[in-house]
Amino acid sequence: MPDYLQETPWDKRNFGIDTYEVTAMHNIALEATDKINGHFTIKVPPLEDPRQLLRHGFYYMDTLIEPVCQREDFHLLEQDGISVSQDYDVKAVLAIARQSFIHGRFHRDFHIPSKLADLRYMNWVKDLHDDKQVYALYVHNQLAGFFGFSGNQILLLGMKAEFRQKGLSKVLTSQCCKLLFDQGYEVLRTSVSAANVASLNLFYSLGFKLKNTVDVYHKLNGPDPVGAF
């Protein structure tokens, strides 16, 4: 497999088809995507002329924004009854993951069945759990959500429906960010869909500044995926 086509086995296991990330936008790379079946992702600067992508069957899927927070800019929020722990029922956390990611690019991809997009995020959370990279979020000892991370990267944030839109996710996320800063990191990073305004506002309120953006395009050759099983 050439360097400009990187296999993504974490997606293949959910969709049951070959999946790739395209790492270059030159003609050879794009022409290669015409010759094999599978699902392709390419991420490009937002000012890149998309006509070449469109000619090769790619379709716009999302714009990702990178919020970044320096330690000195961080706003710590506290509230009675709020706690964070790595002691949790993983099945309960996965149940939250199943309903938390409607803004994800695979949920928005009209070729991907919603149940497979849900499965992708649930498996991602399971991987993070296995690597001890999930914090459970509690409100008065009730599981309210989870926070997935890797190093200084904030990867996933999910809240139960009944705990949303109450200002709790802001406090809980702040507490998790503090734990990461306490590990010695000077800067935290995350990536948020431009469609997820609530999440962007959350991170902005905690001292994150919006930095880079990237446009994401998908392409599918062959039938729509039906899953690995």
From TrEMBL:
It comes from Tigheibacillus jepli. SUPFAM superfamilies: Acyl-CoA N-acyltransferases (Nat). Residues 80-229 form the N-acetyltransferase domain. PROSITE patterns: GNAT (PS51186). This is GNAT family N-acetyltransferase.
